[in-house]
Specification:
heterodimer, A: 318 residues, mainly alpha, MetI-like fold, 15 helices, B: 291 residues
Chain lengths: 318, 291
Amino acid sequence: MQAETTSQPATRPAREAKTSRRMLIWREMKKNKHHYVLLSPYMILFFLFTVIPVVFSLILSFFYFNMLEFPRFVGWQNYSRLLFNDDVFMIAVKNTFLFAVITGPVSYVACFLFAWIINELSPKVRAFMTLVFYAPSISGNVYFIWLIFFSGDAYGYLNGFLIKYGFIMAPIQWLTNEKYILPIIILVQLWLSLGTSFLAFIAGLQTVDKTLIEAGAVDGIKNRWQELWFITLPSMRPQLLFGAVMQITASFAVADISIALAGLPSVNYAAHTIVTHLIDYGTIRFEMGYASAIATVLFAIMLGTNLLTQKLIRKVGE
Amino acid sequence: MNQRTLPLFRLSRKINRSFTVSFMLFLLLAVFGVFMALPLVFAVSNAFKPLDELFIFPPRFFVSNPTVDNFYDLVALMGNSWVPLSRYITNTLLITIIGTAGHILFASAAAYPLAKYRFPGSNALFTIVVLSLMFSAQVTAIPNYMVMSWLGWINTQASIIIPSLAFPLGLFLMKQFMEQIPDALLEAAKIDGANEYRIYWTIVMPNVKPAWLTLMILQFPMLWGSDGGNFIYSENLKTLHYALGQIALGGIARAGVGAAVALVLMIVPITLFIISQSSVIQTMATSGMKD
């Protein structure tokens, strides 16, 4: 009896607090209704074409689905087949990581290094050099120029050059020889990779506080390397984080260039990546459930690497 | 030393710069600059080569007898083909212009409340957008196809245009840029009786012009280079880039025409960037990710 009467007032405020919190949120939402209206066109499309597909892909990866029959639940079967019974996928994973480990860090450092040197130039030259380095990444599909450059016959530029100067006697099949495919794709990928993060670095360098640099000189900073390490890099941390995300995502997504230069499938899968494997199963074999499992693995790799790198870069400045 | 007496030596004005290191760094920049520019210069040079120069042994890098025949051939070839060239150009322009303008409009409308107000869900929504920068579009390719077929958009230009309106990078950059608009400006407009839509359209939008151009330079080349992907089958809906691929498949006889189309495809985005460069750099200065 005693307990009942004492417990009654104890629970009522809790419930009231809960409902009043809900009311508060509702009132807040009503107050901001114009903001939701402004958000909605973008968000509806963003959810429809990005968020829902990610969730849908996750679900679909547990089904067998060929676009004709009704999807059939198969549990972890797609994943176990992918990880234990698909040798080609292992080649794709190996190549993808090779691409990512080389092109990711190299392009990231190149973006920063060239932006840093360009920043020392006078404004007119700076604008010109920015254009030179950025142009490949927006020149659309001009990377097919490399196809002519590495063409397997004697009209290919590299072969022509090498034969003319007597380095080789017969033309080399650059794009169908397993030995050369991977390095060539890495080279072209690097050529294309000075994109959004390069611009972000150029811009970030221009906003570094000049008085900080002068104060640093007074405090005994002796050369440009010390200035870079103690002043420039710490003040650019936000751009560095942004650039890292851009470069990592791009370096795991290598596919278009591989297909354009080496074909799909490439000779002995020498240029096969996770994304080309996904394209193979999704658009050629129509094994949608299996392809979704590949997509989910790719999603996990990309997101995981990005979040881990974010954590690391945040530590560096501390 | 008085700075005004030595305007020529810009570099010496900077603190702690050794000449040798500067020289080495600029040499490095020059070497890689040539590597970056070479294929593009080559693409330009190729487009003006007569056929005999395209297939000369040993290959010559620069054109020696420039000609515009390739461009005439291109027009002639496409005029006689089943689908005229103008059709491909119209399709590409349609996709590119609607996709770019719509993206700027949608992304900025969504960026304004996210940049300037806190309300239930605002943080969560922005976090999802940032997370979606961390994986590429290929991840969602398969469900996207199903969404498209469910909407009945397969083989329509909507399948290319509509998803491009909601790419995450544009919203992210726009929101970061809008954060630097002074709150006082918005408050003043509110006191004058303007509603949120009016503030967005007459105060915020004119103040973020550099960001429009940035979204344009990121969105435009992507749509301009689109080949219709897996969604478009009809020949009369295909894009210029697709037509280029078909011409290139024509082999030796079409090599000159292929080079001409490549030049056309390349020159438009690069020109846009030249025009908008300073605005783009201004926007990118705010692109950083906050701790």
